[in-house]
Amino acid sequence: MMPPPRTHRFRLILAAVDFSSQSAKAVRYAVALSRAGGGRVVAVHAIHPLLAGAAARAYDESALIEDARADLVRFVRSAAGAEAASRIECLAIVGAPRHTLAATSRRLRADVLVMGTSGRSGAAKAFFGSVSQGLLRRYPGTMLIVPPGCPNPTASWPGQTVVAAVTPGEHRRGLIAAAGRMTAVLGAWLSVVDIGTAVPRSRASLILFPLAAADRLRTFRQGTTAYRFICDARRPVLVMHAGRRIGHIEGPRKAA
């Protein structure tokens, strides 16, 4: 009998940091995801261009970047602990957050982008929710979103079972297949729940939210639906696009 292939592995996990308590939690989940699916963690902080421009007029922009990176290193150390932080690369980059995160993820070929969201609405969302919502609407990669009220990851996160929140319809089979591939990466069992936009009732510590492959307009609509779902969740939600390669497969083990 042919031995099974080795576990699918992530190669790189990108953690978005804005120095908020939610992004500290996102760093912790990025580390936990690295433990579960392999891969190194890179923390990135986007320096707003207006701040960079003001700094350039006052003194050297490169000094601002270096100061921001030093702050990022201290923040990651506080959030993840000294041992985990020693293995995390920290990047401070000038640019609008949404564009910077998407571009950095593409450049580094990140398997997963991890970030927090406040889940706020109205005027507050313009500052706290716009980046995560904008990425869900336009970014085609896999994202792990940490909603408000979500506890810190345990040492065994995500545990033995994860739940996939699947919308019924013609794409249901493909969505379940995508969730199954991700579950293989994490080494867990999969439980499937058909939903509309309601959060499934489950004790699982991770929710998978697969999206059907779509054109730009449908992707925008699906991202909006995913954001609304995440705001009501109390667990991290991993959003993935069906048909997109997730993780990497190592070669099969040779029989003894």
Strand order of the largest sheet: 4-3-2-5-6-10-9-7-8
- What do we call the CATH topology? Rossmann fold
CATH architecture: 3-Layer(aba) Sandwich
CATH class: Alpha Beta
Strand content is: 15-25%
- Uncertain regions spanning at least 5 consecutive residues: 1-6, 119-128, 252-256
Kindly provide the radius of gyration, computed on alpha-carbon positions and rounded to a whole number of angstroms. 18 Å
Number of strands: 11
Overall mean pLDDT: 83
Number of helices: 9
Coarse morphology: globular
Can you tell me the number of structural domains? Answer: 1
Helix content range = 40-55%
How would you sum up the major sheet?
9 strands, mixed
- The termini sit apart by 11 Å
Structural class: alpha/beta
Topology:
Elements: E1 8-9, E2 12-16, H1 21-37, E3 40-47, H2 49-58, H3 61-80, H4 82-85, E4 88-94, H5 97-108, E5 112-116, H6 125-128, H7 130-138, E6 142-146, E7 161-166, H8 172-186, E8 189-194, E9 207-211, H9 216-232, E10 237-241, E11 248-249
Parallel strand pairs: 2-3, 2-5, 3-4, 5-6, 7-8, 7-9, 9-10
Antiparallel strand pairs: 1-11, 6-10
